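hey m, so remember when u said the tokens were messed up on ur end? i reran from scratch. heres the input so u can diff it against urs
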Amino acid sequence: MTNFNYNIAPETAALLALNECGLDSAENIDVSAEAGCWRVEFNACELRWTCYVDAADGSVPGVSSEPCPVETYPSYARPSFLRASRAA
């Protein structure tokens, strides 16, 4: 069993991840521990981001993003045919 040094708090990891991606804020931020890194996942700019932050020194060895499914967009940003219709 390997012991990892977690010198960086999860909240700090989230801030470092946002900074690395050039963002000030995001939605649905999820931080989890994974083999000596914090895995930070969040939504911003219609993208789903995954960022790894080294838990020992705060460096960011990896970032990726992919488009969010249109179903997860806020209702005002969805095409009209995907909005829930209102019963008359």
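this time it looks ok to me. The mean pLDDT is 85. if urs says something different then somethings off w ur setup not the seq
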